[in-house]
Amino acid sequence: MFVAIDHVQLAIPAGSEGVVRAFYTGPLRMTEVPKPAALAVRGGCWFAAGPVQLHLGVEADFRPARKAHPALVADDLDALAERLAAAGAPVRWSDEIPGVRRFHTEDPVGNRIEVLAPSG
């Protein structure tokens, strides 16, 4: 039986670490986590916020994830939406799931990210 997800990995193009760092540590307010030396030589970067971890790995034939995505629960959905919009990131609200407040955004390389309010 699974008890948790350790991390979700998203692909990024080579050389994009700077722009994704600014996004994930900026409006998303995640903390960069040092990669182990053996993995750091591959490029990419890792981020965490509480128990949530996102790993961004360099992929040679990169194509952004437009359908597949992490779904993150934010304690202040409206404030995060405002920070993302102020940073120039798209904020597309969705009411397709009754009773669930959520929106979708994209990181600077086009990867889709869903953000939800806590349930209950």
Q: Which short descriptors sum up this protein?
A:
alpha/beta; 2,3-Dihydroxybiphenyl 1,2-Dioxygenase, domain 1; 19% helix; globular
Describe the structure.
By secondary structure, the protein is α/β, with parallel strands linked by helices. The chain has one domain: 2,3-Dihydroxybiphenyl 1,2-Dioxygenase, domain 1 (Roll), CATH 3.10.180. It has helices at residues 17-25, 37-40, 77-86; strands at residues 8-12, 31-33, 45-49, 52-58, 71-73, 92-94, 102-106, 112-116. A four-stranded mixed β-sheet has the order 1-4-3-2, with helices on one face. The protein has a four-stranded mixed β-sheet with strand order 5-8-7-6, with helices on one face. The radius of gyration is 14 Å and the shape is globular. Residues 4-118 form the VOC domain. This is VOC family protein.
* Secondary-structure class: alpha/beta
- Overall shape: globular
Tell me what portion of residues adopts beta-strand conformation.
25-35%
Averaged pLDDT: 96
The profile of the biggest β sheet is: 4 strands, mixed
Low-confidence stretches: none
Helix content: 10-25%
Domain VOC: 4-118
Organism: Streptodolium elevatio
Pfam families: Glyoxalase_6 (PF18029)
Protein name: VOC family protein
Condensed summary:
With 120 residues, the chain is α/β, with parallel strands linked by helices.
Please write out the topology.
Elements: E1 8-12, H1 17-25, E2 31-33, H2 37-40, E3 45-49, E4 52-58, E5 71-73, H3 77-86, E6 92-94, E7 102-106, E8 112-116
Parallel strand pairs: 1-4, 5-8
Antiparallel strand pairs: 2-3, 3-4, 6-7, 7-8
